[in-house]
Amino acid sequence: SINPLPPLEQAMRLVEAMGGASAVMDRARRALDAREYAWAAQLAGYLFRLAPTDLAIRGLKADALQAMGRVTPAHTIRNWYMSHARALRGEVTEGLGKARKNPKAGNQAQP
């Protein structure tokens, strides 16, 4: 569509159409178990948009992204998946995409 719904509204409608958050969570878990990682991540993404602080949703999305990172041959894409999975789990203290200075290394930035 040339004029899609805003992402939050799209997520609300799709989750409702699929039977609610619990049903979508179950489908995403089944997709992950079936190694349908992209589908699991997409479903978890809809849930995450609706409840970004829910730890179960964050964990599910992180698991799907990590699984995608494990199977991709591209280093850059693998790093993106793994970094976002870590951020969802709360393992990253800095915002994604921001470099922080290492006081021992002068002006060099580190991830």
Labels describing this entry:
single chain; 111 residues; two-stranded antiparallel ribbon; 5 helices
Fold and architecture overview:
The protein is mainly alpha-helical and 111 residues long. 62% of the residues lie in helices and 4% in strands. The chain is built from five helices and two strands; from the N terminus they run αααααββ. It has helices spanning 7-17, 21-33, 37-50, 55-71, 75-88; strands at 100-101, 109-110. Strands 1-2 form a two-stranded antiparallel ribbon. α2 runs parallel beside α4 and α3 runs antiparallel to α4. The longest helix has 17 residues, at 55-71. The model is unreliable at 99-111 (pLDDT under 50).
Q: What does the average pLDDT come to?
A: 88
The helix/strand order is: HHHHHEE
| Contiguous runs where pLDDT drops below 50 for at least 5 residues | 99-111
Distance between the termini: 37 Å
Q: Biggest β-sheet: count, sense, barrel? A: 2 strands, antiparallel
Number of helices: 5
Strand order of the largest sheet: 1-2
Shape: globular
Number of strand elements: 2
What would you call the quaternary organization? Answer: single chain
Rg over CA atoms: 16 Å
**Backbone structural class:** mainly alpha
What share of the residues does DSSP label as strand, in percent? under 5%
The proportion of residues forming helix, as a percent range, comes to 55-70%
